[in-house]
Design brief:
Elements: H1 10-22, E1 44-48, E2 51-54, E3 59-62, H2 77-87, H3 98-110, E4 116-120, H4 123-138, E5 142-146, H5 163-167, H6 178-181, E6 184-187, H7 192-201, E7 206-211, H8 227-238, E8 241-246, H9 257-261, E9 268-271, E10 282-286, H10 288-291, H11 310-323, H12 328-350, E11 355-359, E12 362-366, H13 375-379, H14 383-395, E13 398-399, E14 408-409, H15 416-434
Parallel strand pairs: 3-13, 5-6, 5-7, 7-8, 8-9
Antiparallel strand pairs: 1-2, 2-3, 4-10, 9-10, 11-12, 12-14
Helix pairs in contact: 2-11, 3-11, 7-8, 12-15, 14-15
The chain binds ligand KE4.
Ligand KE4 binds next to helix 4 and helix 5.
């Protein structure tokens, strides 16, 4: 892709100044502020297929996809048509609807371990609720998470989290009293010995292990062979529940999520992003004997005004219908693999140390010789090289996640030619990076 003379993001800069007067940092979610990469974040105005356009008229090939949900591409005609049909009948009722039953049936049929689900509005709500259920079902107080994994901003989970917390380099968050996180045990990702040691250190106290089955919030770090089956075995041995946080991997790495790809059955699963198709929707679900403990069927309370609202459910149903068609995941993985293999080849050519991986429709890369197995490895990657590479790609019209602690996403709207243009641009950026520019 020839380097373009991208006009400075003048309107974005004006809007950022205006936004900062009325919105913290000028954004409604921290990582959007470009804190890790500097410069003015483009204020986006529209998206179509694999591309987005900012308020200054700059077009970008989009590998963020609203952080995962837009797996069918922006403004997919089938999703818009379905939304228009539902919109005409009203936006929300706060009452049961047929559509949400259809979505629940669809998700339960797709995910091997999920017999019942409850819709919520965000991944944070999904993981927060799953933890409450796990504590209620086991009568145990502690939870175990992995350094660098991000499960949303519920108090108990804001400990050494990835994504925006890691991007901002903050240990956790003020406002979370120590008592709220004392019960959260944290160990390195991909380290089964550390998990076993934690169970021995807190016998019969750990209610659950919550894990991103493919870590996507400290860059993209796949599970090492045996890690996920090992977690299943350790949870069974120590009487704890296994929770897969598939907010990012659900319907992203395979039709049945990471649990189908890696053939490990968690007790509870959290979903989000793709199952909203770009609208606010998430869910938690799993074994029937556990989910039956959720109000009003059982005593574990959780509620939500807009949970399962018709618009988000309609977008979800159409997105899942598109994904269920033959060959969709092979196509997504062919794109992410083409990109990752191309980046590795260009980096070798340029003499730049790069580690990269692709799993289904998600990918990531580190300016690091490798291996990158956990958060400590991810933090050892060359952040300034990432910043320079990010800036060069953005100026060339490629929109990557503005943090080394995020994953990238392809969509059904991306084409091989888009990947090749991205690699052309990356070639120059990597060569400049090799010269320290
Ligand atoms: P939300 O509350 O943002 O819908 O979901 C929280 C969440 C839970 N679990 C996983 C594995 C997640 O990746 C997320 C949210 N992901 C981030 C991006 N890495 C959302 C982007 C943002 O925070 O703006």
């Amino acid at each position: 892709m020839p380097s373009r003379t991208v006009p400075p993001r003048k309107r974005s800069a004006e809007l950022l100044r205006r936004a900062r007067r009325v919105i913290p940092g000028g954004v409604n979610s921290p990582v959007r502020a470009y804190g890790a990469v500097g410069g003015t974040p483009p204020f986006l105005e529209s998206g179509r297929g694999a591309r987005v356009t900012d308020v200054d008229g700059n077009r970008y090939l989009d590998y963020v996809g609203s952080w995962g949900p837009l797996i069918a591409g922006h403004a997919h005609p089938r999703v818009l048509r379905r939304l228009r049909q539902v919109l005409a009948r009203g936006t929300s009722f706060g009452a049961p609807t047929e559509l949400e039953v259809e979505l629940a049936e669809r998700i339960c049929a797709a995910l091997p371990s999920v017999q019942m689900i409850r819709m919520v509005n965000s991944g944070t709500e999904a993981t927060m609720s799953a933890l409450r259920l796990a504590r209620a079902a086991t009568g145990r107080p502690r939870i175990l998470k992995f350094e660098g994994c991000y499960h949303g901003h519920a108090d108990a989970l804001l400990v050494g989290a990835g994504s925006g917390v890691a991007t901002l380099g903050i240990p956790g968050s003020p406002g979370v009293p120590p008592a709220f996180v004392e019960l959260t045990v944290q160990v390195p990702y991909n380290d089964l010995d550390a998990v076993d040691e934690a169970f021995r250190r807190h016998p019969a106290e750990i209610a659950c292990v919550i894990v991103e089955p493919v870590a996507g919030n400290m860059g993209c770090i796949p599970p090492e062979p045996g890690f996920l089956p090992g977690l299943r075995e350790l949870c069974d041995r120590h009487g704890a529940l296994l929770i897969f946080d598939e907010v990012m991997t659900g319907f992203r790495v395979a039709w049945g999520g990471a649990q189908r790809r890696y053939r490990v059955r968690p007790d509870l699963t959290c979903l989000g992003k793709v199952i909203g198709g770009g609208l606010p929707a998430a869910a938690y679900g799993g074994r029937r004997d556990l989910m039956r403990q959720v109000a009003p069927a059982g005593p574990v309370y959780q509620a939500g005004t807009l949970s399962g609202n018709p618009l988000a459910v309609a977008a979800a149903l159409e997105t899942l219908a598109l994904l269920s068609e033959e060959g969709r995941y092979d196509y997504l993985e062919s794109l992410s693999t083409r990109l990752v293999e191309g980046l590795l080849a260009e980096a070798r050519e340029a003499g730049v140390e790069l580690t990269a991986s692709a799993v289904g429709g998600m990918f990531g890369f580190f300016f690091h010789p490798g291996p990158v197995r956990n958060f400590a490895d991810a933090r050892a990657a060359d952040a300034s090289r990432f910043r320079r590479f990010f800036a060069a790609m953005l100026e060339g019209g490629v929109y990557l996640a503005p943090s080394p602690y995020e994953a990238g996403f392809v969509s059904l709207a991306h084409r091989p030619a888009d990947i090749d243009r991205t690699l052309e641009l990356a070639r120059g950026a990597l060569r400049r990076a090799a010269r320290g520019r």
